[in-house]
Amino acid sequence: MAPLVGRIDHDEYVRDEASRPIYRIDEIDFYDMEGRHIGEIEAVEKAWMVVSSDQSGVTCHFVIRPEFSE
Q1: In what order do the strands lie in the sheet with 11-15?
Q2: Pick from 27, 50, 48: which is nearest to 38 by CA?
Q3: What is the DSSP letter of 53?
Q4: Angle at Cα 8 formed by Cα 4 and Cα 10, nearest 5°?
Q5: pLDDT in tens, 20-47
Q6: For 5, how many CA atoms within 13 A lie in the half-sphere containing its CB?
């Protein structure tokens, strides 16, 4: 299985299991492939969260964590 986070032409992408890009990462900003800003990446213990905030509070959209080989 191909890694789900990778680089294409100096940009980082999250891909689906068929290797199609579905999200783009630009430094700490996380976008869908239509260019809509989803949130910002924040580091947490051994992982990263994609979060956004508005008047209602903070929403966690995704958690990204590394795979470890045994």
Answers
A1: 5-8, 11-15, 21-26, 29-32, 37-44, 47-54, 57-64
A2: 50
A3: E
A4: 120
A5: 888 898 888 999 999 999 999 999 988 8
A6: 11
32/5 Cα distance (integer angstroms): 14
Structure pTM?
0.73
CA distances, 62 to each of 9, 16, 28, 68, 70 (Å): 24, 14, 13, 19, 25
C-alpha 53 chain-centroid distance: 16
**66, 52, 53, 46: which is closest to 5 by C-alpha?**
66
